[in-house]
Amino acid sequence: KLQKLAGQTLFITGASRGIGKAIALKAAKDGANVVIAAKTAQAHPKLPGTIYTAAEEIEALGGKALPCIVDVRDEKQIGEAVEQAVRKFGGIDILVNNASAINLTGTLETPMKKVDLMLGVNLRGTYLTSKLCIPHLLKSKNPHILNLSPPLNLNPIWFKNHTGNALLPDFFLDEAEALVQNMGDQVVIPVAKGDSRSAATSGPIAETFNIIKGVLNPDIVKSTGGVYKFNLSGEHAGVWFIDMKNGGGSAGSGEPPVKADVVMTMDSADFTKMFAGKLKPTMAFMSGKLMIKGDMTLAIKMEKMMSMMKSKL
């Protein structure tokens, strides 16, 4: 049976133990050549394995090994290991950037020595090793670079020791292509004077707020905790509010009963589209159709209410 990695040469950083070694052993079973680029040449008192014991395990499984003492922060060591790999195996087909450093302490408790280590290994080391391997990878028939990194988990438990504020979604990641198409007609619309008395009792805005009143309940108020003010311009200009902070919640025309946490300014037509699910708040904000002043975290929570209203509008 032909193995996928048979005859391929893998340059793996941090391959003396852990995930790097596991990848090396899997490749060895396929009959691959493995360059073990790691620091541990002598047994560590607490951590098992060296580049030489890893080499023995690789060859025992049918692969070929080249142990190299490499600190990925050291350009000379990486360069020498790359040249050794090319001389011994004829080239490099796959680079696995596995070496990493981590220190799970709070910002104020983390010494700069640890910060420099993490940046030096995780960022600079990955860049440097890639830079030196790429000329040889380009000669391979099927070159690959595999960067090992955990996915960005936005669970607050991972960020609570390192930020002063709640995390916010990145507006620049939402429907980039559609945003580019819409940027041509972006307009920031100022608040215009209008007949707010008639708008308060009839029209699409009044209808939207009647639905909002029906959606409000103590659970939404408890989970939101914000007062919103809407300065609307255009055909149905006026001032409206949604109180999702006090009592069972309230909504209507005019100024909010207490100071607003978030003030949103936009055209009344876009307001109707937004609450009907035809215009995403993110797109409205990024294209200049929506101006937001105040607590951005609460502004984003408004989307939850909008999603509840789609079927009713």
UniProtKB/TrEMBL annotation:
GO CC annotations, alphabetized: mitochondrion; peroxisome
Q: Where in the cell is it found?
A: Mitochondrion; Peroxisome
Q: Which NCBIfam families match?
A: PRK08278.1 (NF006133)
SUPFAM superfamilies from the entry?
NAD(P)-binding Rossmann-fold domains (SSF51735), SCP-like (SSF55718)
- Print the organism lineage: Eukaryota, Metazoa, Chordata, Craniata, Vertebrata
Note whether NADP occurs among the keywords: yes
> What Pfam families does the record tag this protein with?
adh_short (PF00106), SCP2 (PF02036)
Where does the SCP2 domain lie? Answer: 218-306
Q: Which family does it belong to?
A: Belongs to the short-chain dehydrogenases/reductases (SDR) family.
Predominant location category: mitochondrion
Q: Which UniProt keywords apply?
A: Mitochondrion, NADP, Oxidoreductase, Peroxisome
Q: What is this protein called?
A: Hydroxysteroid dehydrogenase-like protein 2
Instruction: Mention one GO molecular function.
Output: oxidoreductase activity
Tagged with keyword Isomerase: no
